[in-house]
Amino acid sequence: MKVRRMLAAAIHRDSTPTTPPAIHCGRRRASEAMLGGGPSAQHTLDVSAAQRSGTPSRTLLRSSDLPLRCAAGRWNVLRASFVVVAILFMAQAAPSAFAQRNRDDADVDTPTLVVEATAGWEGTVDRMMPVPVSFLLSNFSNTVIEGRLVLRDPWNGTEADLGEIYLSEGATRSFSSVQGLEDWSSCLAEFRSGNRVLWRRELPLTTGLEFDTSKNFALVINDSSRKPSFPELPAEVERRVLSSQEIAAESGRPVQYLQAKSWQIPVHHAPLTAVQAMIFPEDTPLQDINQGQWRAIAEWVCMGGAVFAHEDSNDVIQQLTNSTPLSAEPILQQKHFAVRRMGLGSIHQYTGQLFRDDGAATRQQIADTIARLSRNHITTLVASGHTTSYRRDQGRAVRNRFLVVGFFCLYTLFSGLVVLAMFRQPRRRIAAYTIGIVVVASVAAGSLGGMLRMSSGDVNVFSVTQAGAGGVVQMAKLTAESAGGRNTKMAITGNRPDLQFTGRVQQYHYRWSPASPGFPAFTWQPNLVRDVENTYQINVPMTPWGRRQLYATGFDPQMRPMDITIEFQPNPLAVELPKTEMPIPVGTIEVTIVNHLPFRVSDCTLVLGFARPAPSEEASVQETNSYQVDRFGNLIQQSQAGSPVPFEFYHTLPIANLEAGAEYRHSSAASFRLYQNDRSRISTWYAGQMTLPAVSREGNLEARLVGRIDTSQSLNVDETRSDFVPRDELHVFVQEVPSEDLPDSLKAQL
After folding, report:
1. For a 10 Å CB count at each end of the chain, is N or C smaller?
2. 39 is in which domain, residue-wise?
3. What is the pLDDT of residues 640-649, one digit of tens each?
4. Within its chain, how far is the Cα of 186 from the centroid?
5. Residues 572, 488 share a domain
6. CA angle at 274 for the pair 273 and 279, rounded to the nearest 5°
7. To 10 degrees, the CA torsion angle through 91, 92, 95, 98?
8. Do 584 and 726 belong to one domain?
């Protein structure tokens, strides 16, 4: 019962309405006002009535809240006004901004100035390679036009000044440049005269047409509106060519012909390495080709290019032979052409007419020859090799890096930890110690900075010297590493040297982003020391301790290549066997080598290789959707279901050393082994390695002699004019035996 009474009392107490303190105060004040009288009584009654009716009274608001609420209201008004003004400003500025952009990108013409401009050839542009940019400017006015040609990327603000152009009255001038546009989104070409833009056009860069590695490209120099109709490979042959497959069919690769006018020929050989052949029709106007263009064509031929010219075009032959850095051999008649070897390439003279209907046979012969040309050249060899650091001592870049790190560590030790340990010392001693540390550190930092600025960096040199007709061609890949300086320079010496800066070092190339088939992208730099003979110097922009890459080329006509003779004696028992049961040649290979070079070639290896199509029952192919896995586990793109993977066979003959003037003879049984992995084509030395390219096509026999030379014979780093000192070097010698010089008895068993 007692508990029930306590619960009832609690419930009654909770249900009893309580009067707010303000109401109690109001009641007390009301009673006081009623007793004492006065105007406050009426006010108190109003408050009490308001409390009873539930309506909030304004007299209950504290006076201190009013300024805060007023300030918040004013801030909201200001913020809303700011947003409205910003929206109005953006709405008014956006049309003008778009109009300004459209006005900057719009085409501009001048009535008396006609400009033709192209990037690449016939819409084929590969930004991963050096892009040729050509201009043809004509002045039809009675005044002189002077200005500058500029390339501009409107998206990232990049500009490239091509140089100053001077056009007299009624003059026409061609201009060509080589640009590295791999980071450009679009390209606008402008001709500026002071602050005025006299001409502007957009040069397409993203055309979808690039230099596909599954095709061979031929550049047709044609200034007329007519185009010779060259035949193409059959469709079934073209389907067999895989974009990721290095080996072409026996009939060759599909050929794509690019039309180019004479003023579109670049003045440097690097862009031409993307094409395998150049065709000069019988009516090509040669007067429009300047000496710089002839020099670029001649150097490209010496590096492995093929030129096709009419037999009556004596001017073409004369210009090439006069501009070549290597001498051309006498004419050699081969099937339908008169061939003159020049360096690693050749000049083919045809007899028919390309533009006439009766020239179909000549066009077919040219097409068949270009389809069988190899895509491998000296640039392929240089791109596949690298150096390996074999020294125990550190280079200048690593040494200076350790000096800087050690300096900061010592400064942190003496200015931090030592000062903390001196907390019991007098103030004067601590102050004197701190001042001494700061003075010593400042002097040491200044001395270290001066040493870093003046110290030379390191450069690793990997070069390939390839012997050909009339001399040797040397190409080098230089990897420069800064030792703390920036805005450096590099110079090389040699016969007709050329040095170009290609940018950052690319160490890895993935399957979906392979290396470019030719030169890497670069912007051509002129020689800074033109008055110095056989020396080429350029600027090398670099950050402290950065790594940059350069490519150098040179030619030496004084060196005579080796005489390599290969003979094959087939096994009489193997000849009687059916060809289907004889997958590889059987017999004896006799090799004779005479070294006419003035230097020794060490660790030599003679590699003979061929490829043949694999029967379907031998090719272990697993088809998965549109891809296939070959017997090596490589995933390659499949263009036709069931297309077999070619089999590669290599015969390797190790040769120790070939001294200068020495003669080497060797006879052994043919031992062609099936290609298993890249180790079959990798040549390794203590200073680095290089990978030989695969056989160019099926049914073709190829032979190469590979070795190492101690020092570079043509290209060398000029240390007096360079901010870099050579450190790790690897110089490789390569000589390829022409296919027509290989024994027919061995070719018959392929």
Report:
1. N
2. 21-56
3. 444 566 788 8
4. 17
5. no
6. 85
7. -90
8. yes
